[in-house]
Amino acid sequence: METKRIFISAGETSGDIHGSNLIREIRKKNPSIKFHGLGRNRMVGAGMNCIHDMSSRSVMWLHTLKKIPGLWNVFKDCTRFFDKEKPELVILLDYAGFNFYLAKAAKRRNIPVMYYISPQLWAHGPWRVKKIRKLVDRMVVIYPFEEAFYASEDVSVKYVGHPLFDELHTREIDEALVGRLKEGEGKTIVSLLPGSRKQEISRLLPVLLKAATAIHQKIPSAKFLLSCSNTRNLELIDGITKRFTSANSNKNLSIEIVTEKISEVIKASSLCITSSGTVVLDIANYHVPMVIFYRISPFSYFTAQPFITTPYISLINAIAEKTIVPEKSMYRDDYKWLASRATELLLNEEKRQMCIAELKEIVSLIGTPGASAKAADEALSMIE
Amino acid sequence: MTLLIILSILSLPLTAACYFYSKIKLCVLFALIFFVSNIIFAHGLLYEDYTFFFYLILVPCVVFPVSCLTAFALDVKYGIFCIDTSFSSIIAWMFSPILLPINLIILYLGN
Questions:
Q1: Which domain holds residue B81?
Q2: Dihedral sign of CA atoms A227, A233, A235, A236 in order
Q3: What is the per-residue pLDDT for A66?
Q4: Domain A5-161+368-383 has CATH 1.10.10.60
Q5: pLDDT over 70, % of chain B
Q6: How far is A220 from chain B (nearest CA, A)?
């Protein structure tokens, strides 16, 4: 029997996680399939032959311009692979800017394209759906409203649920660590989650640290956990935090950096202050109230504004179609807003309970596991 | 000349405001006023004595951003490019406003 090959491409950390789960599910159903593509350590761990490691290529906005020469080389290597190996299927995970190029290259060579985890066209740049219609054979989407969005645009689409919940249902929690993080009588634990990209951390962490100081002034029993999603970012996070605490007059402010233990950090917390991103679903899964924000440069804020078509920056509020957790997109250090919303959710029990109840409702709606297995079925149906 | 200077200066913030609030038709109108008035402005200041310099300014400040915006408009309408063309608006906003300060500096130096 001829060995089938699937080319798979993921540029972000989250894409690497979901890509690795997808590879495992496909291999469970058909162990003979070979995987090649772009990703990171988890996809390689799941059995992918890595054409390029994408760890250092995850960037946004204008920073993308600096990475163009490197990405061009990656693209050329991928097209060479398409020509030489002729894979039976190309699976693309999010990372729209680059993956659209791969979709076009695959389409030119008559290789079917499945797009798993849609770029957020419903939030900004909906005109890109025309490209999807031309370049992609099947969209496999993870939010219920995306199915209706693509179906209305005559794109072949299948809703499978969010793969994060597959991961969360199998993730083992270090309860001893949760217990240790909660230590301290009467302590209010507030976790700070500045994102996973270096440029995000540099921009968001100073705002988070200022907000932490303001919260501590109002709630002196507050203890802060700072989540570092990847050891690669530890030096950066540690450096920013040390510079901040040495310059800060409040010497009682306690900030503990916790590396690669995001679920434990969230579970130990009374409240999370987080960047907008998939992590908000992680937080919602543990029914922890949160304040969501994102900070971009004034120029990016200005240029992006006309393209944003959703009133919400976070997935939680977008899925709920109402504001159930406070969120704000900002272009300056509006840490006072973060501190006031966080304090409100910590001290106003009625608001807090209402927020928790609504988060439970959202999770009951989208938190069913099995997305990766369903996506694997879709992929296999395209090559068998 | 005074009217030209006023148009050149006022049309830029008006374009920006219409862009920010997604008033696209007005934005295109004010952008056209901005480009046309500033090209005439630069032409009056430079063309006769410094023709090469006039064209040298026009390429990055007008031709390049207008080409980008045209590509973007075509992409929005027909989805023909696989590249994420929303970058075109960023490029346009980086390059086109430069024309105004160049004109004003040359005018100042000329006086």
A1: 2-110
A2: negative
A3: 62
A4: no
A5: 97
A6: 41
